[in-house]
Write a structure and sequence with these properties.
The complex is a heterotrimer of chains A (264), B (285) and C (314). In chain A, a hairpin with a 6-residue loop joins strand 1 and strand 2. Chain A has 264 residues and is of the alpha/beta class. Chain A starts with a strand and ends in a 10-residue tail after the last helix. In chain A, the strands form 2 sheets. In chain A, strands 6-7-8-3-9-10 form a 6-stranded mixed beta sheet, sandwiched between helices. A 4-stranded antiparallel beta sheet of chain A has the order 2-1-4-5, with helices on one face. Chain A is globular, with a radius of gyration of 18 Å. In chain A, 37% of the residues lie in helices and 25% in strands. Chain B is mainly α and 285 residues long. Chain B has a domain of 192 residues: MetI-like (MetI-like fold). Chain B contains 11 helices and no strands. In chain B, helix 3 runs antiparallel to helix 4, helix 9 runs parallel beside helix 10 and helix 9 runs antiparallel to helix 11. The radius of gyration of chain B is 23 Å and the shape is elongated. Chain C is mainly alpha-helical. Chain C is 79% helix and 0% strand. The radius of gyration of chain C is 24 Å and the shape is globular. Chain C starts with a helix and ends with a helix. The relative contact order of chain C is 0.13. Classes of the chains: A alpha/beta (264), B mainly alpha (285), C mainly alpha (314). Chains in contact: A-C, B-C. At the A-C interface, helix 2 and helix 4 of A face helix 10, helix 11 and helix 14 of C.
């Protein structure tokens, strides 16, 4: 097992009434697996993702349970240990490509960042790897893009840059949190294909979080359905899509627009 | 009858809600401090412990005592009485300044922001040229043209403050202009001036109030500075800035003189800046 | 480069507008310079002769051109009250005011940047609250009163400098700067309080941005997120503010010069205003206008270098 999450509970305390956003969640990710989490907004998907990436705020909330990754409990280990995993073994791509890149830094600098933080590679080695990563995410003229600023790129290109920055350090796990939501439908399809390719190419496990069942169904091996912080159902993708047990899952599947054919 | 009760109940609820909503401590401090200042000045307008101009040769530079709570100046005048009068002068000038600044600022900013185009271009070019000067420098130039005295100071500072207000109003109006309710109003043919002053202006109130308070503070400081230099308010008018420049001469023998006057000035400015920040904080949270 | 040229052009345009305004405003003042120059000895014949001699009878446009061309050549006219070239009166005062302003600016940056960064990094802590409180009070202290307090505390009580004991830069440069330290602190205190507060809130605003979270997700520590990511973004509004603050400090130094008895531009400006010595006033105003506008232009260029987004919008 690459990652094992046991009895994860996340509770906010900075509200007037404490609010539990994730209830007793168990989850396991194998090496090189593509796993999807689906659910409507507010179902606790993003909180789960942030917990794995170690990005939950330190104050105003209570976390219990454990997230085992390479014999480390990501939920309770010290900051230094966590930082040595963040960006090296676990990377994350976020929902908003327009704001997730630093506006005053060059693309290349941002793509190289994981290498700069975690490795002793020389400048030219980092450049080589960054350009390769930019090419891997199918950006044309990666050497030119390397020297550009985020505002010169479109949303889809920026999301590719974010993916390039997330794969440059050959991580074991890539968390993709709603990364297609802010993009056009045609670009969504390209990005999803790209993730599949990266998964095959580098054998990186990908946790693909989305509210779009058709996208999840297209690329994931396994699917977890969440609602209001609880796991509703879990299983291999075909099983979930064709023989859902829970009423909620069936409703979700029934809500997929019919004109779109799901390729399983 | 039933409806009346219903409505009444609703109002009651919203008032309760308003009271329950915790005001920021900064706002409360600001309200308390400005109230103290206003009370102090109002009392000073009606009655002061002594005549602020009466000189008493026997108590020249007298220290703090029950008789003279802040002591006496080099002419034996009661400092507390003079501080009360001086604060009134300062507040009067600051108020006049802000009124001139905001009145012209609103008109210029509104026209430039709402109509855009050539009007905007011309007005803002002139505005930028004026803004290229720090307002106190602009006021200095204007005073050298108009001469000194309290009304000339108001005029000079007022004109010097117009550009910054105009800029704030303009950017607020440009923001508002793009909003749907303005488009709606334009669509049903509301007259532009009605849109500007009946629709847009009230919606800019929050921004205007906090910039008004900042401007007020700047005016207080500018007036005190000019009077300190001797080109502001002229005797016999008492002014905090002028008193400070007199107090400086007796800094070694009577440091309390400068401290009392300067402390009052800081208290006034601090009160209004807490009030301004409290309001904008309250609007956010 | 194109941008710099464009900025330079707009600098010249603004200065031209300012010079016209300055010239015209002194043109329309009630009172005739020749009459006031002659004072009690004024007779209609003498006034007329003097007007002719001063060239006051020629058209406004001609005189403006003469005045502005003179300015460009460094000829600023003759003082009404002292009958010597304005250049002689003003020239050796410019370095004094410039030194005071620059020193104040340096102090502002030296005080404000560490305080702002520190309190942003430890936002919500005790030290942050203390800095916030002190800042709030500092902002309300007018520089000239700060100057009086500094004079009292460091001059009269602690004897760290002699109030009124100004030493000119051509006598002793070290002593000159030593004397300027406290006046510069008086100017810098309120400005650095404002700058620190702005920097703090600007950093905290940037810390809430998505890209900050991205930076954390790559294993950056809090400090490296702050220094490598947030600071450059957070400095953008601070630079604009510092530009305005520097311009303000020029004006502020005029007042502070009075408090500390420094014979800079401020003192001549004030006596000339009192004496209605308009050639001197307008010359000093133009010098200050040039300084302020140069600063604004430099700020724009720096801004341009820091924020790549402006380049596209021109």
């Amino acid at each position: 097992m690459l990652l094992e999450m046991k009895h994860l509970n996340i509770e906010f305390h900075n509200r007037t009434i404490p609010e539990t956003v994730v209830h007793d969640l168990n989850l396991a990710i194998k090496e090189g697996e593509m796993i999807g989490i689906v659910g409507e907004s507010g179902s606790g998907k993003t909180m789960t993702a942030l917990a794995i990436a170690g990005l939950l705020p330190r104050h105003g909330m209570q976390k219990s349970g454990e997230i085992q990754f390479q014999n480390t409990d990501l939920l309770h280990c010290d900051r230094k240990k966590l930082r040595s995993i963040q960006g090296k073994d676990i990377t994350m791509v976020f929902q908003e490509p327009m704001t997730s890149l630093n506006p005053v830094k060059k693309i290349g600098w941002q793509v190289e960042e994981c290498l700069r933080v975690h490795t002793d590679l020389t400048k030219s080695e980092r450049y080589q790897k960054a350009v390769t990563a930019l090419a891997d995410v199918e950006l044309k003229e990666p050497e030119k893009i390397y020297h550009m600023y985020p505002h010169q790129l479109s949303g889809g290109m920026r999301q590719r840059v974010m993916i390039a920055a997330a794969i440059v350090s050959n991580p074991q796990l890539l968390i993709a949190d709603e990364i297609t939501t802010a993009l056009d439908v045609t670009i969504q399809a390209q990005i999803v294909k790209l993730l599949k390719k990266i998964n095959k190419l580098q054998n990186t496990a990908i946790l693909f979080i989305s509210h779009d069942l058709s996208l999840v169904g297209r690329i994931c091996d396994r699917v977890i359905v969440m609602k209001d912080g609880y796991m509703v159902e879990e299983g291999p993708t075909d099983q979930i899509y064709l023989h859902a047990k829970e009423e909620y899952t069936k409703k979700l599947i029934a809500a997929i627009p019919k004109c779109e054919k799901i390729q399983l | 009858m039933k409806q009346f009760f219903k409505q009444n109940h609703k109002t009651d609820n919203s008032i309760r809600q308003m009271l329950r909503k915790r005001k920021s401590p900064m706002l409360i401090t600001g309200i308390v401090m400005t109230s103290i200042v206003l009370l102090f000045v109002l009392i000073g307008l009606i009655v002061t412990p002594y005549d602020s101009e009466a000189m008493d040769a026997t108590s020249k530079l007298a220290g703090v005592s029950w008789k003279h709570l802040m002591g006496c100046d080099n002419f034996g005048r009661d400092i507390l009485s003079r501080v009360m009068k001086g604060s009134a002068t300062t507040l009067f000038i600051a108020m006049g300044t802000v009124l001139i600044g905001i009145a012209f600022g609103i008109v210029i900013g509104a026209i430039a922001g709402y109509f855009g185009g050539l009007a905007d271009e011309v007005l803002m070019r002139m505005n930028d040229a004026a803004l290229a000067f720090p307002s106190i420098l602009l006021a200095l130039v204007l005073i050298s043209l108009f001469g000194t005295g309290r009304y000339n100071i108001i005029l000079a500072l007022g004109i010097a403050f117009v550009p910054s207000f105009a800029r704030i109003v303009r950017s607020e109006f440009i923001k508002q202009r793009e909003m749907d309710y303005i488009r709606q109003a334009e669509l049903i043919g509301v007259h532009p001036f009605r849109i500007m002053f009946v629709h847009m202006l009230p919606n800019s109130a929050r921004v205007l109030v906090s910039s008004l308070l900042i401007g007020f503070n700047n005016a207080v400081l500018a007036e005190a500075g000019l009077s300190f230099l001797g080109i502001g308010v002229q005797p016999p008018d008492a002014s905090l800035g002028r008193m400070l420049s007199e107090a400086q001469a007796y800094l070694f023998s009577r440091p309390g003189y400068a401290l009392c006057v300067g402390g009052t000035l800081i208290f006034i400015v601090l009160g209004f800046s807490f009030l301004g920040e409290g309001i904008s904080e309250d609007a956010k949270g | 480069m194109k941008f710099v040229l464009k900025k330079a052009a707009s600098l010249i345009a603004t200065l031209a507008v300012v010079s016209v305004l300055v010239f015209l405003s002194f043109e329309f003042i009630p009172g005739d310079p020749a009459t006031s120059l002659l004072g009690t000895q004024a007779t209609p014949e003498k006034v007329e002769a003097l007007r002719e001699e001063m060239g006051l009878n020629r058209p406004v446009a001609v005189r403006y051109l003469e005045w502005s061309v003179g300015l460009l050549k460094g000829d600023m006219g003759t003082s009404y009250s002292y009958h010597i070239p304005v250049k002689e009166m003003v020239g050796d005062k410019v370095p004094i005011t410039a030194a005071l302003t620059l020193l104040s600016f340096c102090f502002t940056i030296l005080i404000a940047l560490p305080l702002g960064i520190y309190s942003a990094k430890h936002a919500g802590g005790k030290f942050d609250a203390a800095i916030g409180f002190v800042n709030q009070i500092m902002m309300a202290v007018p520089p000239f009163f700060a100057g009086i307090l500094l004079t009292f505390l460091f001059g009269l009580v602690l004897h760290m400098f002699t109030p009124g004991g100004f030493i000119s830069y051509d006598v002793n440069v070290g002593a000159f700067f030593a004397y300027l330290i406290f006046p510069a602190i008086a100017i810098a205190l309120p400005k650095s309080a404002m700058t620190a507060k702005l920097l703090r809130s600007s950093i905290l605003e940037q810390a809430g941005m998505d890209y900050a979270r991205t930076a954390y997700s790559r294993g950056n520590s809090t400090s490296s997120v702050l220094w490598n990511h947030l600071l450059k973004n957070a400095m953008i509004p601070v630079i604009t503010f510092l530009g305005m603050a520097l311009a303000d400090m020029i004006a502020g130094s005029i007042i502070i010069e009075q408090v500390f008895g420094i014979p800079g531009l401020g003192r001549i400006l004030l006596t000339s205003i009192a004496n209605r010595d308009y050639p001197v006033v307008s010359a000093i105003i133009m010098i200050l206008a040039i300084a302020v506008n140069l600063i604004n232009t430099v700020v724009d260029v720096v801004y341009h270098m820091i924020d790549p987004r402006i380049k596209q919008n021109g």
